[in-house]
Amino acid sequence: MKHLIYKIIGTPNFVRIIEWREILKWLRPKEGEKIFVACGNGILSLKIAERGCQVYGIDVARNAIRHARCFAEKEKITCEFIVGDAEDLPFSNAYFDKIVCSSSLEHFKNDVRALSEMYRVLNPNGLVILTTDSFTYPLSNQLKILHTHISHVVNYYTYKSIKKKFEVAGFNIVRTKYLLNSSITSFFHKLD
Fold this sequence. Notes:
The longest helix has 14 residues, at about 15-25. Helix content is about 45%, strand content about 15%. The chain is an alpha/beta fold. It has a single domain (about 1-190), classed as Rossmann fold (3-Layer(aba) Sandwich), CATH 3.40.50.150. The protein contains 8 helices and 5 strands. α5 packs across α7.
């Protein structure tokens, strides 16, 4: 069943389907590019690796990396998965062409340190695609508290707050977009 879900839609999570479609559109992965992904269970990393990229996924959770490696092996997709900390990346300076940080930054205690590390490992003409929870759309306080507790969220962002953190880390923001910013979004979050 996981294989079919992966092949057809990638993930059963409605929010991630919308988010990943936009990430892949903005990322435009090209064969041979080195791409770093804050990876969780690795599914998005594999979707990028299918396009011929050299993908390196990192997550602090050993179970997530174990799952990612097993799934990559079953799907016969080459992707390097590493247990590691986004606040201290095990890569040399300017190593990557692109970076994807999908719904991860909000979990890092020192988000500016993680962004600074991404800046360090990205080549000077590189691209970062980052999505994060903002909860600027209408959402009950109860659901927000539940999300914070269940998902271990440390930070929520507005455009102004994330822009400041990006600038402190050395980045320039080229384009932004709220992907899920409506009352219907609450409905999808309740389903996940």
